[in-house]
Specification:
Blueprint lengths: L5 E3 L2 E6 L3 E6 L10 H7 L3 E6 L13 H15 L4 E6 L1 H12 L4 E7 L19 H9 L10 H11 L2 H16 L13 E6 L7 H10 L3 E6 L6 H4 L1 H18 L1
Parallel strand pairs: 3-4, 3-5, 5-6, 6-7, 7-8
Antiparallel strand pairs: 1-2, 2-4
Helix pairs in contact: 1-9, 2-3, 4-5
């Protein structure tokens, strides 16, 4: 993907297109490539923004869901974004929800896909030995319905992270923070229209998690896509983009 990385103070981000802001928050092992087809589709009518979250660059004390939310808030203030359509995958969805609960005023709509915040399966009972490529490959494949989505390039990205001892400690810190920071009944306070797009074969945040979000968030709708895992915007981009486009069009008509 050849999108230009921009810099504004301490923030590194992609900003493509013009129009209303569509802000994308990636997950724990997320990379910009996760959103490639989404950016390409929506930059025609939206200002698509992807901040690079400092998942493994903050000091250990602030390597938490709350620490990431504060980073996102400072980024939004720095860029002076308003009327934001906020989309988050996995941990990014969790960070987005915490942000909306603390600072709802600039958020127009919410889109969650495979979001943590209620329940998620972590890395399992054991954490990999550093450099265990086969383990990483198998775990990465579990993210998808189609194991072929776990390309060598993607496995190498994850392997590079998990080979560094301090990065592994920070990943565990973030994963534990996500489990501790269970939002539950707080979600009933969310007023924004919310779209839940989930893979029916998601083993990290299974479909019942989407249904629970749907029960708790008052103005929400849920879409379950069959033969799809934890990252629908990567695995079934056409179906994902169609659902998202229909939702955003409806939100704009209602406002």
């Amino acid at each position: 993907m050849s999108y230009e990385l921009k810099q504004d103070g301490k923030f590194t981000f992609i900003e493509e297109g013009t129009g209303e802001v569509l802000l994308l928050l990636h997950g724990l092992f997320g990379a910009l490539s996760n959103f490639e087809k989404l950016i390409k589709h929506f930059r025609k009518n939206y200002k698509v923004v992807v901040p690079i979250l400092p998942l493994l660059d903050m000091d250990l004390l602030h390597t938490t869901v709350g620490g990431l939310q504060k980073f996102v808030n400072k980024f939004i203030e720095q860029r002076n974004y308003n009327n934001i359509n906020l989309l988050g995958n996995s941990l990014g969805g969790h960070v987005g929800l915490v942000h909306v609960l603390k600072h709802p005023e600039k958020i127009k709509s919410i889109i969650l896909t495979g979001s943590s915040g209620l329940f998620e399966n972590g890395m399992g009972e054991t954490y990999p030995k550093r450099g265990d490529r086969e383990y990483i490959k198998n775990k990465t494949a579990l993210t998808f319905y189609d194991p072929a989505m776990a390309t060598d390039e993607l496995v190498d990205e994850v392997l590079e992270i998990t080979t560094n001892r301090m990065k592994v400690i920070k990943i565990i810190s973030l994963a534990k923070s996500a489990i501790r920071n269970n939002l539950g009944e707080e979600l009933k306070a969310i007023k924004q229209p919310t779209c839940l797009i989930w893979g029916n074969n998601d083993t990290v945040t299974p479909p019942f998690v989407a249904e629970e979000f749907h029960k708790l968030i008052p103005n929400s709708e849920v879409h379950i896509i069959d033969k799809c895992g934890h990252a629908p915007m990567m695995e079934v981009p056409t179906a994902f983009n169609d659902i998202l486009e229909t939702f955003l069009t409806k939100v704009n008509k209602e406002n």
